[in-house]
TrEMBL record:
Residue ranges constituting the Trs120/TRAPPC9 fourth Ig-like domain according to the UniProt record: 1100-1207
InterPro entries: Ig_TRAPPC9_Trs120_1st (IPR058565), Ig_TRAPPC9_Trs120_3rd (IPR058567), Ig_TRAPPC9_Trs120_4th (IPR058568), TPR_TRAPPC9_Trs120 (IPR058564), Trs120_TRAPPC9 (IPR013935), Trs120_TRAPPC9_N (IPR058563)
Location(s) in or outside the cell: Golgi apparatus
Domain Trs120/TRAPPC9 first Ig-like: 595-728
Keyword Cytoplasm: no
Species of origin: Candida boidinii
Record's keyword annotation contains Cell cycle: no
Highest taxon of source: Eukaryota
Record's protein name: Unnamed protein product
Signal peptide boundaries: none
Main location: Golgi
Chain ranges of the Trs120/TRAPPC9 third Ig-like domain: 887-1080
Keywords of this entry: Golgi apparatus
Length: 1213
């Protein structure tokens, strides 16, 4: 539904909006009235803190945090809603604003007269007010009560504030009249509030389930009912006036009293008002609290932990004034809490479940039953709230702003991959379409259908949307609701939108539309309605559909009638009218005046057109010109004699061409190509029948057109007959000619290098500039760069030879070919060179081993139609380069670490930074020493000067996809990054120890094939053994992971004022053997041993005692993807031969046993054996796990032995 009509009529917070009528007060144009109304509607929210003090109970100073939200409307209430005003006050229109435009003749007496007439015309309004717009600053006017003078837009808000103050005072007087009134339910008032015929069924369904009532006296029931209803009505008015504090208190008091007397109808309404108040308080971020009695009522019995609705503990402060609610004094005081936003949906859901429950309970009452419109709109408002939450994917500030202020959501519809629970929406939908639904008025049902269509569209529930649309279509056609007699502006607007949605859903707005009897009836209804409503835009739209697609079902007089209607609407409407038949152009031929018969620039060409008019009226065509694809400049000439070739001007003769009815007409004109290139003539542009100037394409086989006498039948709307035509896909026909246009010329001005020569160290990166000039008068708009160097040819030759490289070797060659170019343009955004101008390219070069020369290639052109013109010129910029070795990787190794490894700094003469790092990362207990290994790198300085090196090694792999290609170190790295700086003197080799966190790559990761940087097709290697292929993959991915952590840069300090040189150390020479992989990778089957004493404490095995009982605990961890089974073997060894080991250790258990059950993937299992040392000696305790398979089948075989790497050493005293 369009929110401009009623500010989102079914918003969840609609009960909190004051309804005010906006009407024209005197002779004012419809356009001006809409403009002024739009100004007023833009200021629909007023803060109470901005208002002046007002007399009565709704004084804004009593609650300055509140806001009054208006629902400005331009239509009056329907009579049937008056009976609901005492039950739901928000349905009443409280005030009327008369809109008036200032004139110099307007006097004070006239203004008072208009105000008096406004009060007389709307006697039920609490406040009548005049807003006079466009008041001149020089106007001599005096202040008049209930009259606002608007000089500019900034005066609107203060004027509405004054209006609000007066309205609140009037509202106070109005509410005071309810003090001695007995409030009755809408059903007891009669007057069209329909009853359901299924009351007895509801009675039986509800009464047979459970009983919520306690026997109390009739007198107490009457007292509670009286108090509850008055408190509920008072709360509604507080809510409308913006006093949320009193609204919350009154709703809670009403709920307490109405629950005691089982007044289900008013209790449900009070609970709904409470939900609205909570939503607005949440939007304003105001803490609130609910009495325990209310919390108990709305809580689900299965979840007693209702407050504070989430694990987060809100800040609470006790409130001592809760006694005003009249609740039990022994109950706990209300806690004012700032609830987390995530807890609000659950609270609202529980409240709304109770609302629907009590409304259903009221259906069994004789008089206090819920009116069908109240029940339906309550469910619909709740559905709107749920749909907003589902569209956003969360209950956030955007949802709150949408619900409270009707601002648009951040999304228009739900995302495709969002899975949500729509059970609450479906349950509320069932409640809407209960047996009472058809007892509502046609307008009410149409409005509900219309809102559901919009909701289901945004939620992408297309089947339910189709069901609602079908019901809506049946309702409109059977009720003949196209008549406008007695209809309000709101009804017209709603039916306008409804008809549009129906026409779209039944294919009438598609291209081409669906044709059928039902579609024709719907189109006739829509056209008749819009014609009677003087909706010129829609008259043009639906009339064009009639003429374009349904002309065969119309007689010539009917065609002429619709044509005249469209012309009349076009002359009075501000909308552009598009000509309805896009097949105006039937054929087109072009011939050149050039001797070669080729289309040449600045040479006239003849164009012969065939235009068709298949209708029963003549058409006038003006402003015709020939069109071509793309941006090719082409001039259309009607009179070649008045064309001057020297002046190159265009002759703009306005020649009108008349097409007779039912005819094909030949038209001749001329065109002039004003440039060169590929020209594709595919249509014309013209003004037809006074419509807007638009494009008409030329389609294949369009000359095969049936005559009008064959297409038009003598039939009208009454017959409903439609001719069956075969719709075919139309293909645009293009007449193409290729004319080459001028191309630019690029020249090399300067390479800012001495003799165009570079001396670089290996890995060094440096910058230089290249100056280019476009010496032509054509812009270069297509500039593509590429690089060549002397290393590419041998690398390509190696790839192209028949030598059988393994995949990791191929990857390395491709890496140096693709990922390590010799040049990189730093200002690539400069891809355009204007005519006769210069461009300076900033280029960074990289020193690659074996590179002697590098060339920068630039392909350039001026592309007007890029996808069709394949033309470019090339300029090469060669640079001679000499590369000397710098830092070379001479060797590498991976050293495992065990729990016995001593990382104290005083125990190591080298690698101080390494041991310091290991000590820092293991001291907090998050990591152990066995989580790391040492990467030993031998780096040699092959240059003649000392070189400083800075190394970085991340604890985990970098997320930067260009980490390996980066030429600089990251300045901002995680705190747990290992860094070390050192200097290598010339000609010397230094061993660098780098702590590396061991890697646990999944089997799926390791099984991935090695990628091809050239995107070559993968070929299965049938020659290499499978075990070797597996090792190659494992080595590649572990090395890839390591290179994503490790980076080093070197720097050469300047000597004798020379430039500072810096570069990157190439670690791609690291090669892994199986032993290195075992040290680097975390074992898939882990075996870990701990020794504890009789008290369960882990002991220092170097200080074991003789004769004391110890327990050896072995934990087997399965990090593989499959369950494992096998045998566990303990292997104790004595370092002295005599006596035998059996006489030195006493065992409580067996040294070899089965693990009995499989250990699942990702699980661990522990085993223990008790020991006592009988002789002082030194011992080594080893553990081996033999992984077996085929045990269940009786054919057990050894898969692999897993040996405990961190062995335990005992020294017994």
């Amino acid at each position: 539904m369009n929110p401009d009509i009623s500010m989102n009529q079914y918003s969840f917070t609609a009960p909190a909006r004051l309804k005010v009528l906006i009407v024209p007060a005197y002779d004012i144009s419809n356009k001006q009235f809409k403009t002024y109304s739009k100004f007023l509607k833009s200021v629909n929210e007023i803060r109470l803190v901005d208002l002046k003090p007002a007399q009565g109970i709704f004084n804004p100073q009593a609650y300055p945090h509140g806001r009054v939200v208006y629902n400005f409307q331009s239509f009056t209430d329907r009579n049937e809603s008056i009976l609901l005003h005492d039950f739901e006050p928000f349905r009443k229109t409280f005030g009327v604003i008369g809109v008036l435009q200032w004139t110099d003749d307007l006097t004070e007496d006239q203004i008072k007269k208009y105000l008096k007439g406004l009060k007389k015309e709307y006697p039920r309004m609490l406040l009548s007010y005049l807003f006079i717009f466009d008041v001149k600053k020089t106007a001599n006017i005096s202040k008049i009560p209930n009259v606002a003078f608007i000089n500019s837009e900034k005066d609107i808000e203060p004027s509405i504030c004054d209006f609000t103050t007066s309205l609140l005072e009037s509202l106070s007087t109005y509410v005071s009249s309810y003090q001695h009134v007995t409030l009755r339910s809408p059903g007891s008032l009669g007057g069209g509030i329909a009853r359901s015929q299924t009351i007895e069924k509801q009675k039986r369904k509800i009464s047979g389930s459970f009983d919520l009532t306690n026997p109390i006296s009739q007198e107490k029931v009457k007292i509670h009912r009286l108090k509850g209803r008055k408190a509920k009505l008072q709360a509604n008015f507080y809510l409308l006036s913006g006093n949320l504090k009193e609204s919350l208190n009154s709703f809670c008091e009403a709920i307490y009293n109405l629950k005691h007397c089982n007044d289900f109808l008013w209790l449900g309404s009070a609970l709904e008002g409470l939900a609205v108040t909570i939503i607005i308080l949440s939007f304003l971020e105001i803490p609130f609290g609910l009495p325990p009695a209310v919390l108990t009522l709305i809580e689900n019995s299965k979840d007693a932990n209702f407050s504070p609705f989430s694990s987060a503990s809100p800040t609470a402060s006790p409130r001592t004034s809760i006694n005003s609610l009249g609740l039990n004094q022994n109950q706990q005081p209300v806690q004012i809490q700032k609830y987390p936003l995530s807890s609000i949906p659950r609270m609202i859901s529980q409240i709304m479940e109770k609302v629907i429950f009590y409304y259903k309970m009221s259906m069994s009452q004789a008089e206090d039953f819920v009116p069908p419109i109240v029940f339906s709109e309550c469910n619909l408002r709740y559905i709107c709230l749920l749909s907003s939450i589902n569209i956003e994917g969360d209950f956030n500030c955007s949802v709150l702003s949408n619900v409270v202020k009707s601002t648009p959501l951040s999304r228009k519809e739900i995302v495709n991959d969002y899975d949500y629970d729509n059970s609450a929406i479906l349950n509320s939908l069932k409640d809407i379409f209960d047996p009472n639904f058809k007892q509502q008025t046609i307008l009410e049902r149409i409005a509900i259908y219309n809102c559901l269509v919009a909701i289901f569209s945004s939620l992408k529930l297309f089947r339910k949307r189709a069901f609602v649309l079908k019901e809506l279509l049946d309702l409109i056609i059977t009720s003949e609701f196209v008549s406008l007699k007695g209809s309000s502006y709101r009804e017209i607007s709603q039916l306008d939108q409804t008809l549009d949605i129906l026409c779209e859903s039944y294919g009438l707005l598609a291209e081409p539309p669906t044709k059928g009897t039902l579609q024709l009836q719907l189109l006739e209804a829509a056209y008749t309605f819009h014609k009677e409503a003087e909706n010129y835009k829609k008259v043009i739209q639906y009339g064009s559909i009639f003429l374009k697609y349904f002309s065969s079902s119309m007689s010539p007089p009917e065609q002429l009638m619709i044509y005249k209607d469209i012309k009349a609407a076009n002359s009075t409407s501000e909308y552009d009218c598009q000509y309805w038949d896009d097949e105006l152009l039937n054929s087109l031929e072009l011939s050149s005046h050039d001797e070669s018969k080729r289309v040449v620039e600045d040479v006239l060409c003849d164009v012969n057109l065939t235009l068709k008019n298949p209708f029963a009226f003549e058409l006038e065509i003006t402003d015709m010109e020939i069109l071509c694809a793309g941006s090719f400049p082409l001039k259309t000439i009607f009179n070649p004699k008045s064309f001057s070739k020297n002046d190159m001007h265009e002759v703009s003769d306005r020649i009108a061409i008349i097409l007779p009815p039912n005819s094909l007409t030949q038209v001749s004109l001329y065109v002039l190509p004003c440039s060169s290139g590929l020209i594709e003539i595919d249509g014309i542009k013209a003004t037809v029948a006074g419509c807007s100037n638009q494009i008409y394409r030329l389609y294949e086989d369009s000359n095969k057109v049936e005559t009008v006498t064959e297409r038009v039948k003598e039939s009208g709307f009454a017959t409903g007959s439609i001719s069956k035509e075969t719709e075919e896909k139309r293909i645009v026909k293009k007449i193409s000619y290729d004319v080459l246009y001028k191309q630019p010329r690029l020249s090399l001005v300067d390479v800012k290098l001495q003799n165009q020569w570079f001396m670089l160290l290996e890995g060094e990166h440096n910058k230089f500039q290249v100056v280019l000039e476009n010496t032509s008068d054509v812009e270069i708009n297509n500039l593509i760069s590429s690089c060549l160097d002397s290393t590419i040819e041998p690398l390509n030759a190696a790839l192209n030879t028949k030598k059988n490289f393994v995949p990791n070797e191929i990857y390395e060659i491709e890496y140096y070919l693709i990922k390590r170019p010799p040049f990189k343009i730093l200002n690539k955004n400069l891809d355009r060179i204007p005519k006769n101008s210069r461009l300076t390219l900033e280029i960074e070069t990289l020193g690659k081993r074996g590179m002697k020369q590098a060339t920068l290639l630039l392909e350039y052109s001026n592309q007007r139609v890029k996808e069709q013109i394949d033309y470019s010129r090339t300029i090469s910029i060669p640079v001679n380069i000499t590369v000397y070795p710098s830092i070379e990787l001479m060797g590498c190794d991976v050293i495992p670490l065990s729990s016995n490894s001593n990382i104290e700094l005083e125990n190591h003469s080298k690698g101080q930074q390494c041991w310091k790092f290991l000590k820092s990362v293991t001291k907090d207990g998050k990591h152990t020493i066995t989580d790391f290994c040492l990467l030993s790198l031998d780096l040699m300085n092959s240059w003649v000067d000392p070189i400083s090196i800075r190394v970085q090694c991340l604890l985990d792999s970098s997320t930067d996809p260009d980490f390996q290609e980066s030429l600089t170190l990251d300045e901002e790295v995680p705190e747990d990054t290992f860094e070390e700086e050192f200097t290598i003197v010339n000609g010397k080799t230094t061993r660098l120890l780098i702590p590396v966190k061991r890697m646990n790559l999944s089997p799926e990761h390791l099984a991935r094939r090695i990628p091809s940087l050239r995107n070559k097709q993968f070929i299965v290697d049938s020659k290499t053994p499978e075990e070797e292929q597996t090792f190659i993959k494992h080595a590649f991915w572990y090395r890839y992971e390591l290179l994503n952590r490790l980076k080093a840069c070197w720097k050469l300090k300047p000597i004798d004022k020379s430039r500072e040189r810096e570069g990157v150390v190439d670690f791609r020479g690291i090669i892994f053997s199986s032993r290195k992989l075992e040290s680097l990778a975390i074992e898939k089957i882990g075996v870990k041993t701990l020794v504890i004493d009789s008290e369960g404490e882990i002991i220092d095995t170097s200080k074991a005692k003789l004769g004391k009982f110890y327990t050896v605990c072995v934990t087997i961890s399965n990090r593989s993807s499959e369950p494992i089974f096998g045998m566990l073997r303990h292997i104790p060894i004595s370092l002295s031969a005599n006596p035998s080991i059996d006489k030195k250790i006493l065992y409580n258990g067996v040294l070899q046993h089965s693990i009995e059950e499989h250990i699942e993937s990702g699980k661990s299992k522990s085993f223990s054996i008790g020991i006592v040392f009988l002789k002082k000696d030194e011992y080594e305790w080893g553990v081996v796990f033999d992984e077996l398979k085929g045990v269940k089948s009786g054919k057990a075989s050894l898969v692999r032995q897993h040996i405990q790497k961190d062995r335990v050493y005992f020294k017994v005293y």
